[in-house]
Amino acid sequence: MAIPIIPRGDVPPEEIPAFFNFTTPPTNGGIKQVDPLTPTFTFARNLLVDFDLVLPDGGRVPMWIIEDSNAPDAPPPLPKDALRRNFPSPAIRIPQNALVRADVLCQGNTHTIHWHGIEPTPMNDGVGHTSFEVAGHFFYQFQPRDAGTYFYHCHKNTVLHFEMGLYGLLLVDPPDPANPSVPVTYPTGGPGFAARVNPAAVALTDHVIHYDVEAAWVPDSIDSRWHLLGHDAFMQISDPNDPVNPANFTQDGILNDFRPDIFVLTGIPRRINDPTPITAAENPVFGPLVAPTVGVGQTLLARVINADYIIQQFTLGIDAEVIAMDGRGLGIPPFHQYSRPFPLPAGTPFRLTSAMRWDLIVKPTTPGVYPVKIEFLNQITGRLLYTARTTITVV
Amino acid sequence: MKRRDFIKTGLTGLAAITVGNVKIPGLFRTEAFAAGRTIDLTMEAAMVEMVDGTQVFHWVFSSPLSTPAIGPSFPGPALFATAGEDITINIKNTLKEPHAFQIVGTRILTPPISPGQTRTVSFKAPAAGSYLYIDPLNDPVNRVLGLHGAFIVIPATGNTPYSFPTPMVQQLFNDLGTTPQFPRHALSQVGWDPARFRIWLHHQIDPAFNAQAQADFDAGRASTVNSAQMRANFLPRYFTINGKSGVFAAHDHATTIEGRIGQPMLVRILNSGLYTYSNHLHANHFYVTSLNNVVQDNVLFIDSQTLKPLDRIDWVVPFIRPPDIAGDPNIPLRELIPEELALTIPGAQGSPGMPQSPLPYPMHCHMETSQTAAGGNYPQGSIAHFDFLGDVDGVDFPNVIE
User: Which helix (H) or strand (E) holds B335?
Assistant: First the structure.
């Protein structure tokens, strides 16, 4: 008896153009913006730019990054363009509720920027197959209503472009509750205010906490083999009349087979066989964000983002509290009133998978050097691949 | 051409079997009714076509004795029952090695079923929620090679999907459609309509193991696929939701979450494979109301979430207006973004392109190795679509037809 066949799906003839758009997204075709409003906050980004990630042994990994072409020269001893070109790509800070216009220039190839966790219209969401990929300039427009931790990344052939490094921090800063009508952004590294539910709040703008020091743990891992691939690796031009031709969907690629050999904590890399802890001194841009120093009685805000394709397990050697997830302050009314912050006692591990963001606060009471451990685990076997270590120094 | 030309019963996709008087959305490939509260399932072999046309051997469920009959299904038919109801499931094994039937997270389990044998399991449907049924033998081989499906239990009473909601989940469902943050769509009678749900059953295929099982099947012998080898070496090439990948999954109306602002939807998310996902929804954060059949007390409102092997997770997608659309939130979208709603961007290579309305967004796994078939045009793996069809006041966006 012949074994029955279960087909892969239906293609109604009238949906052929929709299927084609999905398999071969259009470009913006000269459209620079839709439904424009007067912005209150603007910035620019340029992608992509080639960047060499330098390993401790002098080895180099080719990365792609997103440039902030308007950033000033960095002060010595930083490299002059460290604020313009870096990995992760330069952070964006936006005042909460600002009406944003982002001038994104895509050159050399088509790209997009997805403002991860920000929820605008599809054409401002930066996903090729539900809108378009960008050639030249596009002005993305959105208005972030919730303060918190986000990130931005290219969403073209994302499996490759995100791995290549096309991402950066995107932080939405709440106003100082003493001046709630004044839009502000805070210096990266602190001090500032962050969203946290406040039982004594009178106004919604009271749901914040002041922090003195800001940390950012953005672990990522790198499969060196992938970094030798081209922009459109394993993709192909498909036929508008036959968008589901089997040839569109496979090239015997390796994009299902992620075997990291380099592990990165907010841009600071280690080879898989190098257990050296990460210190503040070794990278003047990202080191203080990874290995912060905070005083007794002060408040540390740590923003944690999995920018990886594998599981990450975090363990802090000091008590913390989880105050927000994915750009939403736990417990803040009206949308978040069904949740609440919760304690994270020292030594309690937690796991994040890709794109999950947690905001933690630490209020240290005793001087010392407290360990922070990040374990990288295979997403299928759960096998431990690497352990990154850094510290929180309390003075 | 319309994005919403509605294919009610295609040739593929989820099939459903209901027990008693459960109401389901009318989106399934075949909808059968289990007479006498008895469900008949048969385990058999089938070739399942992958997104790239490759036919991969699987063990699957069918239900030839139900009315109407349900042919071989990948995943197995979704089973629907009401909490506390008496149910009997007869499972026939037509394959060449022992199999069994289990509902994960319950004590519902058959002994091994020998080749050619039929076994019966009778039970009272457990507390309302989203369950996964699998063949637990040779764990994880038998479920990974295709013997799995969704088992959905509806509560006997109440306005939530649960028999025993926590106070926070009860409050959330009380608030949907009744509070300023959750305005009810003008044409909706209730905050959350229990028929507004979807199942997203996630699975992965590493064809090397299926080929081994096929060779055994063709030789007329019991499977030699080894569980330890599968756990150590599983490298999925294909990723499916409800049995489909990429463009096929995104265009399956039984998988797409669609509705108007103010029409919340429950999504029942299951993982029958071995891969850990990180599901990211665009356009709305979602509430996590149940995790592995534990109704949640601290109801997170997040945009990305881990889905581990065998996990059962419920999301409430609130269908609030995407909050970060620039401009006055009191102006209807049809007035605030008329250009975008009217726009059709020409497609590549002279294709007519697609209208931007209704507003399309993706849900995709952010681990991203789940988004291709090893290579091929992105994204052709674990993805679903999320479409907004109209404003909260009852006026639909362009191109919406029912």
Answer: helix B333-336
| Mean pLDDT, chain B, integer | 94
Residue B359 falls within a domain, yes or no? yes
pLDDT digits (tens, 9 = 90+) for A339-371: 999 999 999 999 999 999 999 999 999 999 999
For an interface test with A, the pick among B305, B368, B380, B401 (most A C-beta atoms closer than 10 Å) comes out as B368
Q: To the nearest whole angstrom, how far is the Cα of A234 from the nearest Cα of chain B?
A: 5
From chain B residues 6-65, the ones with a CB under 8 A of any chain A CB are 7, 10-13, 45-55, 57-58, 60
**B353 within a domain of the structure (yes/no):** yes
* Interchain contact B112–A (C-beta under 8 A): no
Chain B residue with the nearest C-alpha to that of A330: B300
Copy the structure tokens of residue A97.
């509720």
Contact flag A354-B366 (C-beta cutoff 8 Å)? yes
Res B201: pLDDT: 98
Interacting residues of A47 by C-beta distance below 8 A, sequence separation 6+ = A64, A65, A66, A67, A104, A105, A106, A107, A111, A113, A154, A166
H-only helix segments in B147-244: 167-175, 207-218, 227-233
In this predicted complex, what is the ipTM? 0.97
How large is the average pLDDT for residues A245-257?
82
Is CATH 2.60.40.420 the classification given to domain A219-223+258-394? yes
Find the closest chain B residue to A114 by CA distance: B282
Residue B288, domain CATH? 2.60.40.420
**CB-defined contacts A:B, below 8 A:** 347
Residue range of the domain that includes B295: 167-198+244-388
Least Cα separation, residue B102 to chain A (angstroms) = 23
| A156 part of contact set with chain B, CB < 8 Å | yes
Could you count the other beta carbons within 10 Å of the beta carbon of residue B193?
A: 18
Q: Which of A304-308, B25-29, B89-93 has the lowest mean pLDDT?
A: B25-29
- Residue A1's pLDDT is what? 61
Q: How far apart are CA A340 and CA A333, in angstroms?
A: 10
CB-based contact A21 B353, cutoff 8 Å = yes
If contacts are CB pairs under 8 Å, which of residues 165-194 in chain B contact chain A? 168-169, 171-172, 179-181
For residue A330, list chain B residues with Cβ-Cβ distance below 8 A. Answer: 298, 300
Rounded to the nearest angstrom, the minimum Cα separation between A264 and chain B is: 16
Q: Does the residue B134 lie in any domain?
A: no
Given this model, what pLDDT does residue B21 score? Answer: 82
Could you tell me if residue B310 is inside a domain? yes
Between CA A95 and CA A180 the distance in angstroms is: 11
Place of tokens 């909808």: B31
B100-132 pLDDT per residue, tens:
999 999 999 999 999 999 999 999 999 999 999
Q: Count structural domains, chain B.
A: 1
Q: Which residues contact B301 (CB under 8 A, 6 or more apart)?
A: A325, A326, A328, A335, A336, A338, A339, B285, B286, B287
- Class of the CATH-defined domain A14-23+32-173: mainly beta
Residue A22: burial class (beta carbons within 10 Å; 0-12, 13-18, 19+) = buried
